[in-house]
Automatic annotation (TrEMBL):
GO-annotated biological processes: centriole-centriole cohesion
Stored InterPro entries: CNTLN (IPR038810)
Composition bias type Basic and acidic residues, residue spans: 1-18
Annotated stretches, region: Disordered: 1-35
Gene Ontology cellular-component terms listed: centriole; centrosome
Protein name according to UniProt: Centlein
Length: 350
């Protein structure tokens, strides 16, 4: 920028000198040198301007890089903060685990102490066992005393046995009554099973009747389907016949019009020129044009689509009666129109 300012100042000076030189009566040679210096200074100015633009672009790119690096630094700082948090968390976890380890070690110490105390108790129990052996010996002596008492108890047992026999008689009576009740229950079960068998037979008969009705309904549905298919085919066939009749009537009218326009002699002359009979000439005149063939193809395609639509309706789920009725009515209306057209053509031909 300083070089630019210096150059601009020099340029201004040179311009001022050139102006002053133009006013004064100087020689032409130094003015040429001034112009050359002016051009050199302008070229230097342009170079400096180009350098300034390059410098500014590089400064901008460096600024962008600095911004990107600052963003990268921020991201890295955020990551560092996250890592520090994770480290703190892990440190806390390690401290918790250390504290748990200490607690487990203390628990081990306590468990070892309890084991030692249990061993002491076992030793004490062994001493108790020796003491109990002595007590068993004393108990044997008491047993001898108890055998004596046993004889007394046997007498008491015999008495109790007599009482038990009496109670056994009562039990046998009760068992006989129980057997009677069980017999009654079995009879009830047999009657109930018989009734259930009867009900099962009735339900089976009812199922058979329902199955027969279902078969009949299926047969009726199939008959209805065949009837509808036959009706649609007949309708389509009759419509096609009417179309062919209308075409024939139209052709006949055209041929008659041609015959009226042409005399018999001209027809014979044309036949002789073409080397055909008059009937063959009439057939040639009756040849369909491309439009008629295209129309017949379209009508055939429409009839095919109509039959496919009815087939889809029959295969579709219920209800489909209204759609089927509309489709058949559409074909009947078409037939009616064709009949009217044919009758009008026949009147005109007559």
């Amino acid at each position: 920028q300083q070089e630019k300012e210096d150059l601009q100042g020099k340029l201004k000076l040179r311009e001022h000198l050139s102006r002053t030189a133009g006013k004064s009566e100087a020689t032409p040679a130094p003015s040429k040198n001034v112009d050359l210096e002016m051009k050199q200074l302008q070229w230097k100015l342009k170079n400096s301007n180009n350098e300034i633009t390059k410098q500014s672009t590089t400064i901008k790119s460096l600024k962008n890089e600095v911004q990107e690096k600052e963003e990268r630094i921020r991201e890295l700082q955020a990551k560092i903060s996250r890592f520090e948090r994770d480290l703190n968390m892990k440190r806390h976890l390690i401290e918790d685990l250390r504290s748990r380890l200490k607690a487990n070690q203390e628990n081990e110490k306590t468990s070892n102490e309890t084991l030692e105390s249990l061993e002491r108790k076992v030793k004490a129990l062994a001493g108790d066992c020796s003491n109990k052996k002595t007590s068993i010996d004393s108990l044997k002596q008491r047993l001898n005393v108890a055998t004596k008492e046993k004889s007394q108890y046997e007498q008491m047992y015999h008495k109790a046995k007599d009482e038990l026999e009496k109670k056994d008689l009562k039990l046998t009576n009760l068992e006989s009554k129980m057997i009677e009740t069980e017999c009654a229950m079995t009879e009830l079960e047999t009657t109930a099973s018989q009734q259930l068998h009867g009900l099962a037979k009735q339900s089976g008969q009812a199922l058979e009747t329902v199955q027969k009705k279902l078969l009949l309904t299926n047969d009726k549905v199939e008959e209805f389907m065949t009837f509808v298919k036959a009706l649609t085919r007949e309708l389509q066939h009759s419509v096609q016949e009417l179309r062919t009749k209308i075409k024939q009537a139209k052709k006949m009218g055209e041929v008659r019009a041609c015959k009226k326009g042409l005399s018999q002699e001209s027809v014979q002359l044309a036949a002789s020129i073409l080397n055909v009979s008059t009937t063959d000439l009439e057939e040639i005149l009756e040849v369909e044009d491309d439009e008629e063939t295209a129309k017949t193809k379209m009508e055939f395609e429409k009839d095919k689509e109509w039959l496919q639509y009815i087939q889809q309706l029959l295969e579709a789920q219920f209800p489909f009666a209204s759609y089927l009725m509309d489709a058949i009515l559409e074909k009947l209306n078409e037939k009616k129109k064709l009949v009217e057209e044919y009758s009008s053509l026949m009147k005109h031909t007559v």
